[in-house]
Design a protein that fits this description.
Length: 401
């Protein structure tokens, strides 16, 4: 096992466009790191540079203590687990797992010992004589991992291994991979554009946008302290609400009325003019079901649609936004790959709420959970840097376009 250090990694393809642009990520031995971001942001390119399937334009790739930029893939001792698992259909599970050892000319006793050990860990003992075609998707995935385990690889690399599976199986496989990674303690890098996988699997998550690392942090940190509009909009479902916000002292005027923020937050946004407020759906509640002692602000608004899900409900409240804010939100929508951000507020309500469509309802909001973003750069001005992981300076530069 080994640590993986990426230092200022750049990848330019033939046309000179930096598909990966100055990315630095330190992955500890045994750590599980997710690379996430919309299509084309450079996730696969970065992963392929770790394995050695793609040349590195500049920067250093260090695995363990060794710089591997010029090493061939087979000399890096990493195991890539592909989406289609690439199992040999005519070989038994046993021989599929044994394959890399046979290739290396290992003795039969060594092969047998290693295959049996891997099969025990992966709970494949009763399937060893079967052919891959007779296995479930989950079992096949384990066979593919078995092949990686017997090689004693320094790290596992996954590129969207679950994207072909249906939602239910994907959920099962997700917990399977998490369980095995914990058990084996193998350094793992996992590419996905699914934010649920990103949130549930990784020790830390690297969010990429057009080749640039935006933020590298634990799922909790990303969720609670996104560094900019992009990360805030990408992480969380339903997504964070973005609203025009006018700040005057500790008073923030939103489309629905005014709320109060702390003096400390007010100081950080003083004199900034028009901002974008970010509030997650669950920071809201039906005012009539909130304990009167709880701190927060309330406002009245007309609810257009209510989706009741039993334990919770979502109310939709349309609002108007000025052109500056509209423009930034439309750009964000494009950056997020078409994830539609309508100018409507999505308010999470308790399942017991009686708010119905067409009501003018009283809504409560926990303003301590509100972020304020600079509309020109997208930067989160109210970020708590102690709980935000790593934010490269470049992530906060204004993006062209
Ligand atoms: N062989 C190549 N030649 C030229 N450009 C490439 C090549 N491979 C990838 N790119 C470009 O590099 C950028 C990053 O591609 P990459 O495949 O790493 O994205 P990704 O984040 O894995 O996306 P997806 O989620 O769609 O798999 C894209 O703009 C892509 O068009
Ligand atoms: Mg990809």
């Amino acid at each position: 096992m080994a640590s993986i250090q990426m230092k200022n990694i750049v990848k330019k393809y033939g046309d000179g466009f930096p598909a990966v642009n100055d990315v630095s990520i330190d992955i500890a031995d045994g750590e599980f790191v997710i690379l996430v971001g919309p299509s084309g942001c450079g996730k696969s390119t970065l992963l392929r540079m770790i394995v050695g399937l793609e040349d590195i334009t500049s920067g250093d790739m260090v695995i363990g203590e060794k710089r591997v930029n010029d090493l061939a893939p087979r000399d890096r001792n990493l195991a890539m687990v592909f989406q289609n698992y690439a199992l040999y259909p005519h070989l038994s599970v046993y021989e599929n797992i044994a394959f890399p050892l046979r290739l290396a000319g290992a003795k039969d006793e060594e092969v047998d010992a290693k295959v049996r050990e891997a099969s025990k860990t992966l709970e494949l003992d009763e399937h060893l004589e079967r052919k891959p075609a007779n296995l479930s998707g989950g079992q096949r995935q384990r066979v593919a991992m078995g092949r990686a385990i017997v090689r004693d690889a320094d790290a596992f690399l996954f590129d969207e291994p679950l994207s072909n599976l249906d939602a239910k199986l994907r959920g099962q496989m997700r917990s399977e991979i998490a369980r095995l990674q914990k058990k084996l303690g193998i350094t793992t890098v996992y590419v996905t554009h699914d934010q649920t996988e990103a949130m549930t699997l990784g020790d830390r998550v690297a969010v990429l946008k057009r080749g640039l690392l935006q933020q590298l942090a634990s799922p909790r940190e990303l969720y609670g302290n996104p560094c900019n509009l992009f990360v805030a909009g990408f992480i969380g479902s339903p997504p964070m609400n973005f609203l025009p916000a006018e700040v005057d002292g500790t008073t923030v005027t939103l489309p629905f009325g005014s709320v109060q923020i702390s003096a400390e937050k007010a100081e950080r946004v003083a004199g900034k003019g028009l901002l974008i407020a970010g509030i997650r759906p669950e920071a809201f509640e039906d005012a009539s079901v909130v304990d009167s002692g709880r701190e927060g602000s309330t406002f009245r608004a007309t609810v257009e649609v209510v989706e009741w899900l039993g334990n919770e409900a979502y109310a939709y409240i349309p609002f108007e936004a000025p052109p500056e804010v509209q423009q930034q939100l439309q750009q964000l929508e494009r950056d997020l790959d078409g994830e539609s951000l309508r100018t409507q507020l999505v308010v999470g309500l308790d399942g017991s709420s009686r708010i119905a469509e067409g009501d003018e309802a009283e809504i409560w909001v926990d303003t301590s959970k509100m972020h304020l973003f600079d509309p020109s750069t997208g930067e989160n001005l109210t970020i708590d840097h102690d709980h935000a992981g790593e934010v490269p300076v470049r992530a906060l530069e204004p993006t062209p376009g």
